[in-house]
Every structure is written in C-alpha cells, then in structure tokens.
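Narrative of accomplishments. A recurring question from our advisory board has been how the design workflow behaves on a single, concrete structure rather than in aggregate. To address it, we present the structure tokens for one chain from the evaluation set, followed by the sequence designed for it. No filtering or post-editing was applied between the two.
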C-alpha cells in the first residue's frame, strides 16, 4: 500500500515564504533549477523537475525550511553529493529538494579527543585531506570520495574498502546534529566513545536515508595515520581457500589487515581485457583473485611480516600465485583492478548492479547458485562477482549481450537475485541502502515486526510524512 501522500499548500504560497527565508543563491525555481538536482547516480533522468531547490547555508536555514514545510505539508527530499545507488535522493514531482552542498567545512579537529567536527555538506575527500594534514586518518573510504558528502555517508551508513578493519560509517560517528521534520534541532555532538546516558539518538539517523531527519553536522572518530602500506594480489583455486586466507591473514597480521577484496575470474577477466589502462599483474585463468593490504607505521618491520604471511599461505597451498607491490604507484595499479567497476555503466550497459550481504562462509555457494539460476532463464547472461567479502559484502553485476535500455529485464533479474538472497538468509543491501530501488525487496531481509517498528519510528518523528516519503518502505 502506498504511503499517505502529504497534502501541500499551493506552491506559490510556499515559494513566497521560502524566498523570505533564504538568500538569493539559496533558492532555485522554475527554469533556474539545475538539471543535476533531478537525480542521484543510479536513477535515470526523470522528466519532472522538483518543485524547487533549497541550498541551505547552515542548520538554521534547514530548521526554518523544514518548519515551513511541516506546517504546509510539503514533501522534502534531502540531497548530498548525489552519488547514491538506491534512488533515495531522486525527487518525484512536487517534492522540494533540500541540498546540503553549501554547508561544507571542517569546524574542528580535536587532537586530544581524536575527533573531527564537520558540516554535513563537506565531501569525504575534503574531510580525509583535512584529517591527513593534521596527522590523522578518517577511515571510511569509497570510490566516490571526491563527490559524496559526509551527511550522505552517514544517512546511508556508507561502507567502502576499509570496513574489515575500521567498520562502517556508523562506527566513525561519535555524535551528530540533525533537524527533525518539524524544524526541531537535535544536537548531540558527543566526542566520547563511552556515553550510556539514555537512548543513543544518533543511531536513529545513521542509515535512515533522509526519512527521519536531516543531518547537518557530525563528530567523527579519527584513527592514527598509517605511514606504510603493504599490498599484494593473490590467485586462489577455491572459495574455501579465500576464506582460509582471510583468517590466516587476520591472525598473522595482528589486526593490521585493512582490505580484503575478492574478484572472481569473471570480474578479473573483464576488467583486465576491457577497461583501458588496467593491467593484469597475474595471469588470467585462476578462479579467484584477492587484493589485500596491511596498514602500519614501520615499513622495515611491516614488510617482513607481510611477506612471511604470504609465504606461509603459499606453503599451506592457499595461494597459487602472488604479486607484491614494490611501490606506491604499483599498489595503486593493483587497486585500479577493483576500482574499474566505475567503468561498468559506460562500457557494459545496460547492466543490473547489486550490493548484497551473505554469511562469509556461504558467499561462494551463493555466487554459484545465482549464476545457475540466472543462466537457466537467460543462457547468454554474463554475471560478474566481486566484493569486500571480509565484511560479508558481495557485489554482482549482470549483463545481457544485445539487450537495450528498452528491453533489459532488470525487474525479473532482481526477482531472481533477491530470491536467492532470501534463501541464503542474507541482506538485500550491504552498504548502498534501500531508497526506491530496493524497497520492493526489503521484506526479504526484514521481518514484519521489524518493518512495523520502522513505521512506528517514522510516524513518531515525521507525523505528516514529509521527509523522503515513499523511500525505504511505505506507510500503511
């Protein structure tokens, strides 16, 4: 059943009041609305622009705009860097876009607390660079770092390449400030790791995809800045060997394993033959390839430990072949293999891309089962598998040669995909969120009781259902 639709006031009245609240660059209407605000990364460009775009300068702007929209029952969709892959930031007709892009900047780095206080519109890369300049590491990292924003990273609980060591975005957030649907500012800019004073309200907003409030500022945990990295690409014969290598590396490297990226043969063959500039450090033909690295602070000590770990893995028969990066430039070339997925929308289109989570021990079996089910319906399908795996995350892309945007059966492919996810007791979303794209399949990973609790929280915090209505789930 569709969510109860907010009944907004006439747009002319809303726009007049918005004009009194905002400076000139803060409001775009009509033909002045830039095309980029119509969609996030995943969604196709829609024909219907938003009612208007608000570009808030600060928390006070956000609060005033939301109070007005709450009073007039005007639906609002918050937007960050528009790099989302679930469609949550794509506006529908009649919705107001609330962009956080002007709210950027690092307000403080507290060296004693090991924290950074940052505005929500700050790009992840800008925050990383500020932390690095101060001798710290902001641990979350993903390919869209130059465009994605901290507020969006928190609202979607972003993951990325370093989750196995540092955790998701949730694990980096010590405190935050958010504005509720009625304009109430909830400021909980906590800097302490331990704080058990009642409910932990920050958790309401982390991963809520803009449906419960608009995040405006955050206090992020920083980690000591590594000064040395050891990187290797390994070839393996079986998925069981992949899991054994993961546990072997975790034991031998004593918590310093910071990435464990797995590429199936189909992915490795595709990117090393079809993506310009990507070279193959190891010959094709092995069933699995693992990109792993150690982050430490003393190369003279880290390198022998890393090499010893690899040697013992080879002696145990876990690794068939390996290449160790001898320089930072070579390590970057290894990572180009994994990051080549960014080229898929251009060179391999149309394709259906999925981000799922499974119990680590069953990911190999899942991939084989999915391939069998897909080929039974589409014999010429080309599924490729890759993922972080050490944190249970698998990415799958499915390409159908000869298909066009008009006849590509994405919905049918999704039915097969999420049916297998449900069978394996996995999650339909590991790190990309639900948005519009995965909403029909949320029930595959959440019980009716969990969904009921989500709706209860949504009604309590947003009684008029104005914040990102229809995303994640529908209200009964």
């Amino acid at each position: 059943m569709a969510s109860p639709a907010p009944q907004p006031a006439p747009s002319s009245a809303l726009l007049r009041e918005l004009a009194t609240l905002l400076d000139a660059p803060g409001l775009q209407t009509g033909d002045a609305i830039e095309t980029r605000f119509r969609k996030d990364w995943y969604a196709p460009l829609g024909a219907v622009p938003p009612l208007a775009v608000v570009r808030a300068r600060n928390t006070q702007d956000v609060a005033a705009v939301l109070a007005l929209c709450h009073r007039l029952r005007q639906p609002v969709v918050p937007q960050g860097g528009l790099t989302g892959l679930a469609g949550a930031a794509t506006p529908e007709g009649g919705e107001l876009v609330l962009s956080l892009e002007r709210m950027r900047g690092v307000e403080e780095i507290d060296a004693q607390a090991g924290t950074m206080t940052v505005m929500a519109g700050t790009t992840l890369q800008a925050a990383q660079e500020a932390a690095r300049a101060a001798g710290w590491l902001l641990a979350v990292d993903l390919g869209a770092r130059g465009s994605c924003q901290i507020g969006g990273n928190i609202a979607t609980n972003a993951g990325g390449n370093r989750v196995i060591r540092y955790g998701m975005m949730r694990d980096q957030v010590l405190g935050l400030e958010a504005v509720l649907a009625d304009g109430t500012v909830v400021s909980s800019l906590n800097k302490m790791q331990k704080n058990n004073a009642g409910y932990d309200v920050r958790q309401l907003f982390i991963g809520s995809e803009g449906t419960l409030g608009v995040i405006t500022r955050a206090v992020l945990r920083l980690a000591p800045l590594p000064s040395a990295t050891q990187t290797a690409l390994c070839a393996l014969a079986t998925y069981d060997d992949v899991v054994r290598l993961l546990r072997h590396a975790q034991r031998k490297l004593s918590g310093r394993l910071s990435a464990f990226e797995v590429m199936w043969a189909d992915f490795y063959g595709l990117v090393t033959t079809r993506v310009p500039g990507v070279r193959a450090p190891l010959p094709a033909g092995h069933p699995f390839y693992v990109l792993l690295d150690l982050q430490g602070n003393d190369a003279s000590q880290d390198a022998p430990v890393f090499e010893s770990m690899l040697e013992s893995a080879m002696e145990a028969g876990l690794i068939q072949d390996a290449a160790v990066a001898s320089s930072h430039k070579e390590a970057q070339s290894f990572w180009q293999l994994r990051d080549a997925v960014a080229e898929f929308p251009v060179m391999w289109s149309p394709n259906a891309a999925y981000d799922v989570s499974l119990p680590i021990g069953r990911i190999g079996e899942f991939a084989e089962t999915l391939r069998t089910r897909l080929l039974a319906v589409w014999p010429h399908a080309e599924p490729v598998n890759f993922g972080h795996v050490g944190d249970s995350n698998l990415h799958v892309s499915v390409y159908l040669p000869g298909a066009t945007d008009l006849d590509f059966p994405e919905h049918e492919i999704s039915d097969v995909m999420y049916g297998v996810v449900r069978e394996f007791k996995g999650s339909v979303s590991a790190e990309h969120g639900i948005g519009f794209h995965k909403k029909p399949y949320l029930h595959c990973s959440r019980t009716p009781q969990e969904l009921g609790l989500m709706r209860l929280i949504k009604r309590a915090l947003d009684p008029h259902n104005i914040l990102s209505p229809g995303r994640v789930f529908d209200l009964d």
